[in-house]
Amino acid sequence: MFPTSETSLRAAVILGLLAASPQGFAISTLKVPLKSTIAPKMANLFNASAPLTNAALKVVATVQAGDNQTFSDVLVDTGSAILWVGGQQKYIPGADTRVINETFSVGYGAGGVNGTAYLDRVTVGEATVSSQIIGSAGYMEGFSLVEPIDGIIGLGPSGSNYGEVSGHNTTRTFVENLVAEGTISHPVFGIYVSPLSESGIPEGTGEITFGGVDQSRISGDITWLPQNDPVDFHWEFNASSFSWGDKVLATGPIYSRTDTGVLPIAVPYDAFFAILDDVPGASLDESSAIAGSITLPANVTVDSLPAMEIGIGNLNFTIPASKYIVPTSLHTTLNITDNLVHTWIMSGGPGAFDLGQKFLENAYSAYDMENHLVGFAYLA
What we know:
Blueprint: H1 5-18, E1 30-38, E2 57-65, E3 69-77, E4 83-85, E5 98-108, E6 111-124, E7 127-141, E8 151-154, H2 174-180, E9 188-192, E10 206-210, E11 218-226, E12 236-244, E13 247-258, E14 265-267, H3 269-278, E15 283-284, E16 294-296, E17 308-312, E18 315-319, H4 321-324, E19 341-342, E20 345-347, E21 352-355, H5 357-360, E22 364-368, E23 373-379
Parallel strand pairs: 3-8, 4-7, 13-21, 14-20
Antiparallel strand pairs: 1-2, 1-10, 2-3, 2-6, 4-8, 5-6, 6-7, 9-10, 9-22, 11-23, 12-13, 12-17, 14-21, 15-16, 16-19, 17-18, 22-23
């Protein structure tokens, strides 16, 4: 499904703002460097029963808060909307901290956290909010695959943190507070996730741009799509197609979401099993940290495999086999003990994509909280 005429008009207006001259719009954008890294403790703390979230690669930012503290391993998560710290070093209230006598509690696919909520001055990269609700972790469980973890900065849609802070129905996200305090003009942000090389080494530095998008990161225009209802849940939209080589395995509308907090490219259920049927000897990983993903026979080569293509709006993102094959250098970290060819491909459920980090390494994504739009562009 494509935008209605009204949504198309809104998207055109937003696109015009994002493409404006520096004097017109870019003066109110702020950039935050992101680091893509392998979770170093993962091999030692592997638990086959643990849910898969950020199994090998985590995207982190640095947050400053509390008593002049720096929390350097804060996961960036578009699938949640609460900011909390204290996972490694204890959060200590500082001169700018205000006690509000409230608590917070958040559940994730990878675990959960609860503790005390405060108002504090919080800085993420170049962006500072003088009065942000921030959680101080008191109890955590289930995050062993991404340790060390200092916290999570949730960049989900407005209203998607319902009931997670006591005394509040919902609370403003970091992006909403940047707008409320006049730091940026629009509740829009763009994300560039730096990829892993074929040898499993992070290439360069990723980036969040608050208040707009970074035109230097993209090629061509951003395609904006309307969020699916309810808009206060996840960054969900409809993709248009999915192909495996020259075979079209799904056509739109395909219910989809992006999530920087998960790792795989999860494709529609029927397409997932069509891939299994297409490659002789393909099977499911049953024991590693990416259990549930597709594995291929040891004699399969990158050159013998087709590319995947995901259609979003008028864009087609091609993901070659070299990008969906797990580098052998990561096998030990992922507790892979066989000699099979492993992939980042999983099932997203009936008729649904869940486009995690391995997809987002191949696309620039943008999010408009005011007009309820999700945007994509080719990388420069």
